[in-house]
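# step 3/5: fold
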Amino acid sequence: MATRHSGWRGWLKALLPLLALLLVASYVLHWMLARPVGQVSIYGEVRYVDQQLLQQRALPWLSEAFWKVDLTGLQGDLEQDPWLKKAVITRRWPNQIAIQLHERQAWARWNSRAVLDEQGEAFYPPNPEGLDLPLHIFSEVGQLQEALAFHQQLLDAVESLDIAISKLYLEPRGAWQLQLTSGVTLMLGRDNIEKRINRFIWVWDQWSEDKQAQVNLIDTRYPNGLSVGWKKTEDK
């Protein structure tokens, strides 16, 4: 009997350190999982993102324990800001949440309310009319990609000319019209567009800078020529 009891005592003595270690580990694990967020670090150069509104949206998510913060939900909530293209959120030991902000780069206005970023993606910031953007595109929703492709085609075509496009119109029936930064309106219509662009380029390149400065409108919608509207009434 003494031998049996001695065996149990031996096993108990051997198990006690392991049990104590498991208890300590359980306590530490519970403390780690229940630990609140201690620091929030925000990175990224932003100009238009409403940072105060971002903080208001983030606070409810960050009130959870550090390991329970729903990073995907927090990301989706923050990205409701129209200027925020992407938020990259990570956990950093022991209690830090890092948020990296990627702001959209406005490239052009689209119709009355929308703005296009550098990838041609539309977003709707407040007060877009206050943005100083060099290009304004007008088109139906389903024609935007066509308008963007045509704008790039125009840039490639007029690369040799000292001109820039300020407004581009694509009418619902497919007719094109654009305005240069100098104020000249160019009417291209919807047929034989490449031929009409080349005709405009050839004529424009023949004129002196003084003559170009007097042009108000160029209409290329003719089979074999174009018409010019001048800023002055004198004969050219």
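# step 4/5: annotate
The longest helix spans residues 2-34.
# step 5/5: archive (pending)
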